[in-house]
Write a structure and sequence with these properties.
Elements (H helix, E strand, L loop, with lengths): L2 H13 L12 E6 L4 H24 L12 H13 L2 E3 L3 E5 L1 E2 L5 E10 L10 E9 L5 E7 L2 H9 L4 H22 L3 H7 E15 L9 E9 L1 H14 L3 E12 L6 E12 L3 E11 L7 E9 L24
Helix pairs in contact: 4-5
């Protein structure tokens, strides 16, 4: 069931209005390929069906998630509960068929789960279509649930892999990038504290108008930057997480670049949409990932630059000014 079909049916579902949310829709999940293990296939189908159905029940009833009877790890249970406290969502499909993927650590993964984020209290924006990924253990138990990149973005990054090692690391990078994004949605400060290195460099930019010396000339625009260390950045996030009723982070573009000499370093550039109960922005986020220790990869650099150069949103930041892996010496 491809992403394009899912996108096409959304306007139809939207026209149904409140009927969609008026009842808890049962979801049936099926695997079409990826394993010949009948027991594993049955367990995965049963467990994902139960989880997505419970999500729809809790969303319709406006209650907490109830994981009773669903094989799910304590970490996944806690992570999903944190996400649910911040934002609610539902699964729009009654029947979903996807491939079962094998991850680099020997576990399993299902991608392209269609999810609709529902507006939080006081939020004025419409429902937002997203996709989710579910990781599963050797017996089909659920070990994580997180918002993921759209299928076309994921495929594009993987298609640029140059060898087996690069493909393996790209898959790991995308998994971590998706967890990184979801950490903001669920206000997971411990995860962010873990992935930023102790000497992490955090750079944020903003557009300012520069008055010309000639009073007859028009004002020009430039981006000014502020530099923060890890503690300063996390302290700021802690205040934001405590004040915001909800936070939504979405990645709509992504480019992954391998360092030309150090094969364990990757630069990831994403276009990020950020929205909270009191602030929103649209910008480029660059992350410099160090996968020297694949069990505990670290972010050494995070930058943010505004996408638009003016308030009218008619001129984007010049591509030559967007920070990439070439702008940093290891």
């Amino acid at each position: 069931m491809g992403v394009y079909r899912k996108l096409l049916i959304l306007p139809v579902v939207w026209m149904l209005g409140l009927t969609v949310c008026a009842h808890a829709q049962t979801v049936s999940f099926f695997i079409n390929s990826g394993t010949e293990n009948g027991r594993l296939k049955t367990n995965v189908e049963k467990n994902i069906s139960a989880l997505l159905t419970e999500i729809n029940r809790a969303q319709a009833a406006e209650t907490l998630l109830d994981f009773s009877g669903i094989p799910i790890t304590d970490n996944a249970r806690q992570s999903m509960s944190m996400l649910w406290e911040n934002i609610h969502f539902l699964c729009m499909e009654e029947d979903i068929t996807e491939r079962l993927l094998t991850t680099g650590d020997g576990n399993y993964q299902v991608r392209n789960i269609p999810i609709l984020l529902t507006p939080a209290e006081g939020e004025t924006t419409d429902d937002t279509y997203q996709e989710a990924t579910i990781d599963l253990g050797a017996s089909g138990e659920i070990i994580s649930f997180y918002f993921s990149l759209k299928a076309n973005l994921y495929r594009d990054v993987m298609a640029n892999g140059k060898d087996v090692e690069d493909l393996r690391l790209r898959q790991a990078i995308l998994d971590y990038v998706e967890h990184f994004r979801t950490a903001y949605n669920q206000k997971d400060l411990p995860f962010l504290e873990q992935v930023f290195s102790e000497d992490a460099l955090i750079i944020t930019g903003k557009v300012v108008k520069v008055k010309p010396s000639d009073t007859n000339a028009f004002a020009t625009e430039k981006i000014t930057y502020n530099v923060h260390n890890k503690k300063q950045y996390l302290d700021r996030l802690r205040r934001i997480f405590s004040q915001a009723k909800y936070i939504k982070v979405d990645f709509s573009e992504i480019k992954v670049s391998r360092h030309p000499t150090n094969k364990n370093f990757y630069g990831v550039l994403v276009r990020q949409g950020y929205e909270s109960s009191f602030y929103s922005d649209d910008g480029y986020v660059f992350l410099l990932w160090d996968f020297t220790d694949e069990e505990r990869p670290q972010i050494h650099v995070r930058t943010w630059q505004p996408y638009w150069m003016n308030d009218e949103k008619t001129r984007a930041i010049p591509e030559s000014e967007i920070m990439t892996i070439k702008d940093f010496k290891l």
